[in-house]
Automatic annotation (TrEMBL):
Pfam families: BTB. This is BTB domain-containing protein. It comes from Patella caerulea. Transmembrane segments: none annotated. Residues 21-65 form the BTB domain.
Length: 105
């Protein structure tokens, strides 16, 4: 069992999880280039009501549409296409991470 002695080590571990796409269960395909940005639904949804609603909506839609996803690495993930710019999602993730840090204080 991992015991976190400081909030920095927890944040480092969360960053590490996000860097390993096989541990993530959601991928945002961002902008026209569909740049993949990986995440963990439970963490994102509990940190932001907007992300919670987005994830919930896309999960329901995915069940109804049974949309096929290209690429083996995306097979078991919820895929959310975002036509916005990569910077918008980056700002949102920064806010989510900063709120996570505030909760740990």
């Amino acid at each position: 069992m991992t015991v976190f002695k400081s909030r920095e080590s927890l944040c480092d571990n969360l960053d590490y999880i996000l860097s390993m796409s096989e541990l993530c269960d959601v991928v945002f395909l961002v902008a026209e280039d569909k740049v993949p940005v990986y995440g963990v639904k439970a963490i994102l949804a509990t940190r932001s009501h907007v992300l919670y609603q987005m994830i919930l909506h896309n999960q329901r839609e995915a069940k109804v549409n049974k949309k096929k996803v290209k690429g083996e690495q995306l097979k078991d993930k919820l895929v959310i296409e975002m036509k916005k710019h990569l910077e918008d999602l980056s700002v949102l993730i920064t806010v989510v991470k900063s709120r996570w840090i505030l909760i740990l204080l």
